[in-house]
Amino acid sequence: MQIEIGASDLLKLGGNLIIHKIVQYNLSTKYTSIVPTKYGLVKGHQRKTAYDKEPYFAFEGIPYAKPPMGELRFRAPQPPEPWKGIRNCTYLRSKPAQNHFLLHIFEGSEDCLYINVYAKDLKTEKPLPVMVFIYGGGFQIGEASTDYYSPDYFMKKDIVFVTFNYRVGPLGFLSLRDRDLDVPGNAGLKDQVLALRWINDNISNFNGDPNNITVMGISAGAASTQIMMTAQQTRGLFHKAIIMSGSSLCDWANEPNYNWPYRLACHLGYLGSNNEKEVFRFLQKTSAKKICFSKILTQDEKRDHILFGFAPVVEPYDSESCVISKPHEETLSTAWGNEIPVIIGGTSFEGLFSYQFVLHDTSHVLSNFESLIPREVREISTPAQIKEHVRRLKLYNFEDATRGQMEFKECLQLLSFKHFWHGIHRTVLARSAYAPKTPTYLYRFDFDSPTYNFYRIMNCGRHERGVSHADDISYLFYCVSSFKLDKSSPEYQTIENMIGMWTSFATQGNPNCAQIEPVRWEVIDPDATPKCLNIGTKLEFINLPERKQLTLWDSFYEKLKLF
Length: 563
Known about the structure:
The chain has two domains: 57-68 and 91-340, Rossmann fold; 344-485 and 497-563, 3-Layer(aba) Sandwich (Rossmann fold). 30% of the residues lie in helices and 15% in strands. The protein contains 19 helices and 15 strands. Strand 2 and strand 3 form a beta hairpin. The chain starts with 6 loop residues before the first helix and ends in an 8-residue tail after the last helix. Residues 1-29 have low confidence and may be disordered.
């Protein structure tokens, strides 16, 4: 029988830090539940899923770090201060400070390092598998909110699901070389490390199994997931990974050294020299709104397909909190993540992500073949070698290799490989080389709904078709754009398939489940043609359609380490 008890009685039972687990269960009322964490008691409440009104517990806005403000701005996060009494965690806290990607207005707060835990049940015979989601947004935007990532579909399964905020943009990725300033960069990634530690320390109190944690992420969240698989601080903190439409080897996940901090300060009115201490002092005094609102990419940089100014960086010196000490290619062979099973893949037309960019600069972008060649390749190539790379790119993709301009859709298809698929492919090659006996499952999301692929509809309009970058989010999370589907519809069946496979993988390390029978999803064979599960109107285990194009992109790396 569940009972109610006051806060003062709770504290008498064991203080505000350690309460025996039996208390957690006895304190659950029909609608609320109080759970102990390492830092204090939290109150959550019961909700119901969107479709079948199945109950689950939601704990939102739990602090996992001190607010990264004042002296902590730009720096590694610190554990939160313990609190007394019961913290109300029945609602979301602020998203990270950022510039809204559509409305172009400032939103969020620097006080943003909060975690959300959703549990199907708080008491079962065995603790439940844990799934942790890291949002995307190019390291510039994003939020762990139910507006975009409501856990309703996952809560149909016996799962504990976790989301959390991490800092984005300059506030999360400013990097300075001066050791005295203690801002080597990657504060947003260090937020992720601390969140994973919090989960490991506390998730058992929410009926989660700390020995069965799966980290999953999309886009920047996918690159983050792979980075977490190489960071020594996270060794052993999770046991499986799902990497969706991104990789730490993608261009946009590796910041070019373009002197961003000084450029940012100058853009905001700084008139001093390029002295890091002075630049830092100026930025410390500048409002978060001004910092987030600044746009420092030049037109030429955009035309060179540089997507973001502040992103993960190889840190200029080692520190206790260092996350990236070497280029990613140099860490893959010894990554501790080679020991854990992985699902990795992308959508069939990732390049629709660049639809608006190409549309608004068509005359230049469609004729700029050279910019398609990976930047790291161009940096070590002579003009003659770059010209040869371009010739082979044209020869492979067009009947007329002398063409001076691409068609609109041709350009977007090539950007699929440049921005996403080749990085994913290189990660698969690395897994085949360095983790040949550890399961790696490759997928290709190819479900082209006219009404439910929300990112394509928002970015390209309803007249366009194809499966864009981020379209698969619609089939994992109930969000503000979602609407009730007929359960016999192919859209609903795709949700069932995705949730079935993803939760099966989280539970047992194998995505095969009743929902997809009789189709069998096999692991990558390092010695054979790469095969993938094609997730379309029907499920098929097929040769990866992009494999030949990817071989061409591999050839650009003849002077570089491919993985």
